[in-house]
UniProtKB/TrEMBL annotation:
Residues 21-277 form the Fe/B12 periplasmic-binding domain. It comes from Helicobacter apodemus. Pfam families: Peripla_BP_2. InterPro entries: ABC_Transporter_SBP, ABC_transptr_periplasmic_BD. This is Fe/B12 periplasmic-binding domain-containing protein.
Length: 318
């Protein structure tokens, strides 16, 4: 019932108070999705989201994020004290979800694993969930449609090419964690070096057995391409020898997770993997047009450069 009242308030009268949303637990990407697509008043965010916002263009475009309270390991009393209209969390945050429901609060949980970590379908489900409280149906349709167009465009150009691609999730004291979620790799025309659809710790010997053609580094680590290219331990890898090591772009959020930037990220990866097949594609233009089309925002050249060359501090998970 409360959900219906919230949606009614949004649709019927701009005089109603803003809908207060608290995002907690493992739902790190959601604050940005809410901010760019809705009029939600975000009153709490996960601590792990902060650096991705602080050290990216988001802090310039949405400076209000720098003043929003954040935390981790929240207790039920702390969350109830926020008195949010809607609470949003990761599906794994079952205890707090149940406690909030029992307290009569409106709470919605989201999964990051939809159809075997398919980022497009995960984002679609997330936007449908957000759409229960905010009128974003047209935006949702346009964003998902744009991802499908990017997938089809890339597939039409790559055809039979299948480079071996690796996503480095993190690197900490020689602990090599590879990203096993293969959607970004497969839809940008590559073949994942991992068979399992899960993040996997491997040693240096196993890394050499995989010997990727291309390496992409996520924004969940402060490791940079230069770190790998300068590492004596990695010098024998094909991707290192050919200098095909890239940091994933960082626009609204870290794209290895569900984000609004799936389509331009796929084009980024396709062009880096197969530059000869995408010579006519300007990645700067791709992101600039994306921001105008979906958010009504004209990026400066400095902001475009920061998207394509992210600040490594954005990868530090607090």
């Amino acid at each position: 019932m409360k959900r219906l009242l919230i949606l009614f308030a949004l649709l019927v009268s701009p005089l109603f108070a803003e809908v207060k949303v608290a995002v907690f637990g493992g739902l790190w990407p959601m604050p940005v999705i809410l901010s760019f697509l809705t009029e939600a008043k975000i009153i709490y965010i996960p601590k792990a989201s902060v650096n991705a916002l602080k050290y990216s263009i988001v802090s310039e475009i949405k400076p209000e994020f720098l003043g929003i309270p954040y935390g981790s390991n929240e207790g039920i009393e702390e969350l109830l004290a926020l008195d949010a209209d809607v609470y949003m969390c990761h599906i794994a945050d079952t205890k707090l979800y149940t406690q909030l429901q029992r307290a009569g609060k409106e709470v919605k949980s989201f999964s990051v694993n939809v159809e075997n970590y398919d980022l497009k379908m995960t984002l679609k489900q997330w936007l449908e969930g957000v759409g229960q409280y905010f009128d974003i149906a047209k935006k949702q349709q346009a964003i998902i449609g744009d991802i499908t167009q990017a997938e089809e465009f890339i597939a039409s150009r790559i055809k039979d090419s299948k480079a071996k691609v690796m996503i480095l999730r993190s690197l900490d004291n020689n602990q090599i964690l590879l990203g096993g979620r293969s959607y970004l790799i497969e839809k940008s025309g590559g073949k994942s070096v991992l068979k399992a659809q899960k993040d996997s710790l491997i040693n240096l010997e196993s890394l050499y057995e995989l010997d990727p053609d291309v390496i992409f580094i996520t924004n969940f680590t402060d490791t940079t391409p230069k770190d790998l290219l300068d590492s004596k331990q990695w010098q024998g890898l094909k991707a290192i020898r050919e200098k095909k090591v890239y940091k994933l772009p960082l626009a609204t959020y870290r794209p290895y997770a569900p984000s609004l930037d799936v389509a331009p990220t796929l084009l980024f990866m396709a062009k880096k993997t197969y530059p000869h097949l995408f010579e006519d594609i300007s990645l700067g233009d791709v992101f600039s047009k994306h921001f105008v089309k979906f958010y009504g925002i004209n990026l400066t050249q400095k902001q475009v450069d920061l998207i394509l060359n992210p600040d490594s501090r954005a990868g530090i998970i607090q």
